[in-house]
Design brief:
The protein is built from 17 helices and 17 strands. It is of the alpha/beta class and 472 residues long. α5 runs antiparallel to α7 and α5 crosses α10.
């Protein structure tokens, strides 16, 4: 009999615990799913995007105003329904299905993020938060009304009741001020009674500076990094991001996990900086590329010949069977009419896109066009990038044919290799330079041909490394 009584007492102690445990497990599981699949942009949308959405979707869009009744009555976006934030968990029957497009609106966006993140946690798949809220809408001079819009009540979507209960408990107990902390107030706390600071921005943002003493947990990894959360669920915690939206997501997550003293920095670190408060840890940026200095040095180092090559000198290269690369930068039509034997074809405006057709920066490269104008531009571009032996044929094909030297129409096969590495900023400058001077009006095409000239072409070995070979 005593054993039976003991068993009954144990059972009475266990029964109340089971639902709480089941609810906690369901919340954790759902939060982990939510945290691993945060929506693009965290659901934040601009006024302009909302206007476009309304134009495209019309009445299909649910405009959910989560402000207080007195705020709503003073003016709201036409068609928006009022569901004060603390009552949202009790009024899910005013929302359509889980896939309905919903835009959550408050005064400035802070409360809307709490409501929107909670709906996303519950499984609503198309929830957006209006950035800047009602104030941003009015600031863009879009119209408002005072006549309320009534929502037709329906059935609550099929959502796990334990999740709805957790969401309702969280929302209905939101304190005055919505757990927002202003930057000046936080600055005082940091000195007098420092809270635990958690920065949920990306690593790049973190590296640009953070509030001293903060720890970094990117919001996209937040639920997967619970081992880095404070163990004490009653600890004084402040989360922040750039402007408080991602901080709002972290705030909702921690609150639903049972943390009782979490706040979100209103306006994020942007508000902190705007209040002339300090950040630490900013990594020094590399010195900006000085294009003017670079090209001044480049021009000073140009030889007296300005890297120009005469026809006779090119003939000599052929005669001596020198290793060099011959590049024709004329248009496709010009090249098809005839070119210097062994030349590879890279139209002038495509030079920076086909550097994998050239060997290395030390290669002997001769560039030509119809008269020497375009080849000079290409030569200058390559020299600026660091090619040390790029030259331009004076007079181009006009001078070549005037010397009664032949052209051919038999193209060669060129296998690409690996382009050298360049300074990204330098390459961007060269790549953005306009290399489209128009057709060479002086071009001439010779008809005499000879088999006595020597030329070169680029080939690729089995390892995709470019090399140079000769052919008669």
């Amino acid at each position: 009999m005593k054993k039976l009584i003991v068993l009954l007492l144990v059972a009475m102690m266990i029964i109340p615990v089971l639902p709480a445990t089941a609810q906690e497990d369901a919340v954790v599981t759902r939060l982990e799913e939510y945290g691993a699949n945060l929506p693009q942009g965290y659901g934040v949308t601009s006024v302009d995007d909302l206007v476009t959405l309304l134009a495209e979707e019309g009445d299909n869009v649910v405009l959910l105003d989560v402000r207080q009744p007195e705020e709503y009555e003073g003016g709201h976006i036409e068609g928006s329904i009022l569901v004060p934030l603390r009552t949202l968990g009790q009024n899910l029957n005013l929302l359509p299905d889980l896939d309905a497009p919903i835009v959550v609106i408050c005064k400035g966006g802070f409360r809307a993020m709490i409501g929107g993140a909670t709906l996303q946690f519950l499984g609503y798949t198309d929830v957006k938060i209006l950035k800047g809220g009602y104030d941003a809408w009015v600031g863009e001079d879009y119209p408002v009304v005072t006549e309320p819009s009534e929502a037709e009540a329906g059935e609550v979507p099929a959502i796990d009741e334990t999740l709805i209960t957790a969401a309702d408990e969280f929302l209905s107990n939101l304190p005055e001020g919505w757990d927002a902390v202003r930057a000046p107030d936080l600055a005082t706390e940091v000195v007098e009674d420092p809270p635990i600071l958690i920065d949920v921005r990306s690593e790049d943002e973190w590296n640009n500076g953070y509030i001293e003493g903060a720890q970094h947990i990117w919001i996209n990894d937040f639920m997967a990094s619970m081992d880095q959360w404070p163990e004490d669920k009653d600890a004084n915690i402040v989360v922040y991001c750039a402007s408080s939206y991602r901080g709002g997501v972290a705030y909702v997550m921690m609150s639903l996990m049972g943390y009782t003293n979490v706040r979100n920095l209103a306006g994020g670190i942007n508000a902190w900086i705007a209040a002339d408060l300090p950040v630490v840890g900013a990594q020094e940026e590399e010195a900006a590329f000085d294009a003017e200095s670079y090209f001044a040095t480049y021009l000073e180092g140009m030889p007296a010949s300005f890297n120009a090559l005469r026809v006779s000198e090119l003939e000599e290269k052929f005669a001596n069977e020198e290793d060099f690369v011959l590049v024709d930068v004329r248009t496709d039509d010009e090249f098809a009419e005839g070119f210097i034997e062994g030349a590879i074809h890279i139209p002038l405006n495509e030079v920076t896109q086909h550097l994998d057709l050239l060997p290395d920066l030390n290669a002997d490269i001769v560039i030509y066009c119809g008269s020497g104008h375009r080849s000079t531009m290409a030569m200058a571009a390559l020299n600026a990038l660091g090619y040390e032996n790029a030259t331009s044929l004076l007079g181009g094909t006009r001078a070549w044919t005037a010397a009664e030297l032949p052209l051919t129409t038999e193209p060669i096969d060129v296998a690409p290799g690996t382009a050298p590495e360049f300074d990204p900023e330098l390459f961007a400058i060269v790549e953005q330079t306009d290399l489209s001077p128009g057709p060479d009006i002086d071009r001439q095409v010779a008809t005499r041909k000879t088999s006595t000239q020597k030329s070169c072409l680029i080939i690729s070995d089995g390892n995709c490394n470019t090399g140079i070979v000769r052919h008669p």
